[in-house]
Amino acid sequence: MKEETLELKLDFSKLIPVITQDINTKDVLFVAFANKKAYDNTLATRNATYWSRSRNELWEKGKTSGDYLKIKEIRINCEQNSLLYLVEPVKENACHTNRKSCYYRRIKDNQLEYI
Predict the structure, then answer these.
(1) How far apart are the first and last CA of the chain?
(2) In the chain, how many domains are there?
């Protein structure tokens, strides 16, 4: 594939990794996956939607919690095999642990610590 093309060539024969980032703070909120159905729902609703591998179902973020992530921009990498959702959170927390981001710990000296 010529990488400089403007032709969209998403291959939904596999799940596509999606990095979700707060457009204002630039914090990475989490990484999830999308299939064609999730991607199409994201475009239609402008709410970040994914394919839940653990539940094996469509997951529109915020549908049950109210923690919607409004799509502001979607970017694609050079090989068109991953996406970046730039979002604006409707509430403060994107993680199911009631934290702003799923990346709330760091590894230091091979141990976990809260940030």
Answers:
(1) 41
(2) 1
Q: What is the pTM of this model?
A: 0.90
56-82: average pLDDT: 95
What tokens does 17 get? 């990794």
Cβ atoms 95, 29 nearer than 8 A: yes
Query: What's the number of CA atoms in the CB half-sphere (13 Å) around residue 88?
Result: 5
Whether the Cβ atoms of residue 50 and residue 90 lie closer than 8 Å to each other: no
Is 76 within a domain? yes
Question: With contact defined as beta carbons under 8 Å apart, do 59 and 49 qualify?
Answer: yes
Tens digit of each residue's pLDDT (9 = 90 or more) over 92-104: 888 888 899 998 9
Range of the domain at 99: 16-114
The answer to the question of residue 102 being in a domain is yes
Write down the mean pLDDT value for the chain.
94
